[in-house]
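Batch 3, record 17
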Amino acid sequence: MTVFVVADHRRGDLRDVSFELLTAGRELADAAGTDLHAAVISGDTDAFADKLNREGVDAIHVVDYGEEFNHDVYAQAATSLVENLGVDFLVVPNSVNGLDYAPAVASRVDWPYVSDAVDLGYVDGTLEITREMYGSKVETTVAIDDGPVVVSIRGAEWPPAEGDGDAVVSTFDADIDEDTVGSTVTGFEEADGGDVDISEAEFLVSIGRGIEEEENLELVEELVDVTDAILSSSRPVVDNGWLPENRQVGQSGKQVAPDVYLAIGISGAVQHVAGMKNSDTIIAINTDPNAPIFDIADYGIVGDLFDVVPELIEQFGGTPPDI
Amino acid sequence: MESQMKVLVTVKEVAVVQDGFEIAGTEIDDTYLSYDLNEWDNYAVEEAVQLAEAGDDVEVVAVTIGPERSEETIRAALAKGADRAVRIWDDAIADAELLDVETKAQLLGTVVEREEPDLVLSGVQANDDNFGATGVALAEEVGFQWAAVVNALDTGNVLEEGVASVRRELEGGVEELTDIDLPAVLTIQTGINEPRYASLRGIRQAQSKEISTWTIGDLGLTEDVAESSLNITAMYKPESESDAEYFDGDADKQAAQLADILRDKEVVAE
Ligand SMILES: Cc1cc2nc3c(=O)[nH]c(=O)nc-3n(C[C@H](O)[C@H](O)[C@H](O)COP(=O)(O)OP(=O)(O)OC[C@H]3O[C@@H](n4cnc5c(N)ncnc54)[C@H](O)[C@@H]3O)c2cc1C
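Prediction for the assembled complex:
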């Protein structure tokens, strides 16, 4: 039996989740009494294998094919690894690239697939996967009786693996069939910087879907004005076209770490938190006492932003707009 | 008559949980649930309708797996411009505790094989179970190409070249530019377009558009398709990990305490 993890890398760097996968994989391997193997597909595989050779990793397999992620290559390589190396648990990241190949591998090897695990347990031959539903309002345990599975893990839920390892590194010939590669990556582009760099701000006032309507933005703009803050937001506000992209905090937006991050009407979805959890002080205003943003907040106000924000504006000598 | 192109959009009616909800067994007590079109699918529908508007003869078919109640959601897609709809439902599906990815891919895959679309658009994930896997699993099931987390699609290239030139939204503000041969499944990310609201005329027209309902048997499958090796063994409200200091009192008191903190942290001048 083997627990097998597949590293994530982009443009020459291993992504953090690769090292977290080693920890999650080692824990599962210990519980199930198996070995932990890791795979690196594409890119500078030798250098990557070297970095992944941390404590607890028994073997590393490298697939030399191309530079960057291509889902056709990953799906073929991972399938081939699973079929040839006696893998029982394939653990991959729930990253954007994970989303692009993991379901295909599960389908090819005809194993069940469970995504976005925040915890993994192995009890009496049953794998128990903890995952969230309904915007983190509930957690569920999904159990799989004896049988192999493909599972993707959420980033930043496990600490990165540390220490030097003594894994055996070997090259795996995945025998990629080029004729079945139906997608071609033609390049990368980075989002425009735009008028302001929110990652430089000391104090961010960040607004979420709780603002309800574009016209209501006036309220937070006034707060920003009187406090000399910089305005940022969660994704829906940008998706709606109410603020430009360079204001978006989160996984697909900016990483920020201001002295104070004031989250107003933001639930605290994992992809948002990924962009702001390193802020020195986090303050949240939300009507829902169970909103996950409070889990990482230092200070909280359970209340309606349309009541609290006008008062806050007055605290700093401003006049709340009529909305 | 053959249309120039056929686009299938998968849509899901998702459950939205009210504050103060209760859990009964491994389900949320349904008095606390309301239903809505999945946020991501709303963008997928819009993208399909925009393709239809840009092309000469593009048919848009919406497909869902859902009970009769979900016809309301499907009508919303029809009102926005989809031409007709397919709804898959069956007692065996209703009885299943959890529809796993494989089940959904097989059910939808049968519809894809019958409809033979050039392009399938689905959402990146669903608000309720956030599995994020149906689109790619479906592509694999029917042997289509695919791309996940697409936030731009070159409509002209789809219609004229039969190639989907897309941007995949990666982490950290980086986008990957990728060309995919058709037929393909794209999973659509929010923000790719500005979803329209249905017009009154659209809503009226939707009333007379066709929704065909298919059971597992109609699809030529057997009830085993709804079986899963996954079991939900527990559902609970996560314990709060909050060690936040809460400001109590009326809004003015709360605001005063918050203002003190901001001054204290020296991020706001007096
Ligand atoms: C691949 C991928 C990438 C993503 N990238 C990002 C990203 O970079 N950044 C990002 O933010 N999201 C991202 N998301 C989306 C993310 O999953 C959430 O959907 C999003 O963060 C939700 O934003 P929100 O908190 O503003 O909205 P919601 O989750 O809808 O929360 C609104 C909150 O406002 C509260 N509220 C409502 N009314 C009031 C009121 N009157 N007063 C006070 N509070 C109120 C509610 O209680 C609720 O908690 C991504 C998703 C995916 C799948």
